[in-house]
Design brief:
Layout (H helix, E strand, L loop, with lengths): L10 H11 L9 H13 L3 E5 L2 H11 L7 E5 L5 H8 L3 E5 L10 H14 L5 E5 L8 H11 L2 E5 L22 E5 L12 E5 L2 H11 L3 E2 L12 E2 L10 H34 L3 E2 L12 E4 L8 H10 L15 H6 L7 H9 E4 L7 H20 L5
Parallel strand pairs: 2-3, 2-4, 4-5, 5-6
Antiparallel strand pairs: 1-7, 6-7, 8-9, 10-11, 11-12
């Protein structure tokens, strides 16, 4: 089976982990600060706070922005559930913004329309979370301008976009257009630490609060202690620290990141070229700034009813496809906890049409050719059989 995504771990990462295991510190040692500095160097952000998952990073970012019961957080309907769940952990309500079906990213037009109505009803969001779907940047300059007009905070969920850039230059994560940016280092992401995440911000106070919250809410500042052995828990926090073992992997992966990105972009460019010849629509467009964490195709309208059969047949022929994502509000939890959810027509159509095909740096030319060939055959069969598989 050719997976839709895969991590790459070499002997260098393994040696780095072994070195940590033989060291005095398995956690709270020198590797995590080095990894955080590496993320700052990559993005030009002033602060990076590494944690045990991107979900934790999203949760702590919401808490640092004082999201609480009675607040409303807006997220795109097309995202992994963690993007919305982080607001719910804080007691806030979640509302969903429709997407641009061509990119899978939040629709600025839908966002503007919702903001106009929300202003009239007195229910503007406290935070808007913009998700860089598949590694391609949202229209952050416009979203940032809207945040100034309507007075909401911005979190960039860049879980797909480590190493990616904005179209006009600058690395995603530099926080020029947001209060906080979150990265994910899950194994199928562009860069992995096995599990892990990080919050990046240019606001020193936000960074300090996230650091405190990841470590039980404990303040270890010497000036706030009476004795050198004392600490003070100033608020309710969590044990969301990243171990040094994981950061050691990340430090090696950071050195490889440019190569990972170049290979993903090379594969994506070939997909756009080869699939265009076969009249297969793709999500997004060829560019040199996306991280291409995912590569999606869009079925034709008359293939929607055959998606299940197409999906199963591709897997049966060794192509590890996936779907990203069912609109969050269609999950049972949100159906039962949110009594009035407006549907997002583009997100629902995207879900009906999108299939993610394999993309990762170690994908070989032979595997690439197999993906294209099998995809072409299966999609042609979906036309010929008219639903009779």
């Amino acid at each position: 089976m050719i997976p839709y995504g895969s991590h790459f771990i070499s002997e260098e990462e393994i040696s780095a982990v072994v070195k940590v295991l033989k060291n005095e510190w398995l956690t709270q040692g020198e590797q995590v600060p080095a990894f955080e500095q590496g993320l700052c160097n990559l993005t030009d952000a002033k602060n990076a706070v590494a944690v045990n998952s991107a979900t934790s990073a999203l949760h702590l970012s919401c808490l640092a922005l004082d999201v609480a019961k009675g607040d409303v957080v807006w997220v795109p309907a097309n995202t992994f559930v963690a993007t919305a769940n982080c607001a719910r952990y804080c007691g806030a309500s979640v509302e969903f913004v429709d997407i641009d079906i061509a990119t899978g990213n939040i629709s600025v037009a839908s966002l503007q329309s919702m903001l106009l109505h929300a202003e009239k009803s007195g229910r503007l969001p406290k935070v808007v979370i913009a998700v860089h779907f598949a590694g391609t940047a949202c229209e952050m300059e416009t979203i940032h301008s809207l945040s100034k007009k309507y007075q909401f905070k911005i979190i960039e969920d860049a879980s797909h976009a480590t190493g990616a850039s904005y179209p006009n230059g600058g690395k995603i994560g530099n926080s020029l257009y947001s209060d906080i940016t979150v990265f994910s280092f899950h194994p199928v992401k562009v860069l992995t630490t096995a599990e892990g995440g990080a919050s990046l911000t240019n606001d020193n106070q936000l960074a300090e609060r996230i650091r405190r919250l990841r470590n039980h809410g404990i303040d270890r500042d010497l000036k706030n202690r009476g004795n050198s052995w004392e600490f003070d828990q100033t608020e309710l926090g969590f044990n969301f620290r990243m171990p040094d073992v994981l950061a050691a992997i990340g430090n090696i992966q950071l050195q490889r990141l440019e190569g990972f990105l170049n290979r993903r972009r090379e594969i994506a460019a070939r997909y756009y070229d080869e699939l265009a010849k076969r009249n297969i629509d793709c999500v997004g467009s060829i560019n040199n700034y996306s991280s291409f964490h995912l590569f999606g195709i869009l079925l034709d309208d008359n293939q929607i009813s055959e998606k299940q059969n197409i999906f199963v047949e591709l897997r049966q022929q060794g192509i590890g496809v996936n779907v990203h994502y069912k609109p969050v509000y269609l999950n049972s939890y949100y159906q039962t906890t949110h009594s009035s959810i407006s549907s997002c027509a583009s997100a629902e159509m995207f879900y009906k049409k999108e299939i993610s095909i394999p993309i990762y740096p170690e994908l070989t030319d032979i595997e690439f050719n197999k993906v294209v060939s099998v995809l072409e055959t299966v999609l042609e069969k979906s036309y010929d059989n008219c639903g009779n598989w």
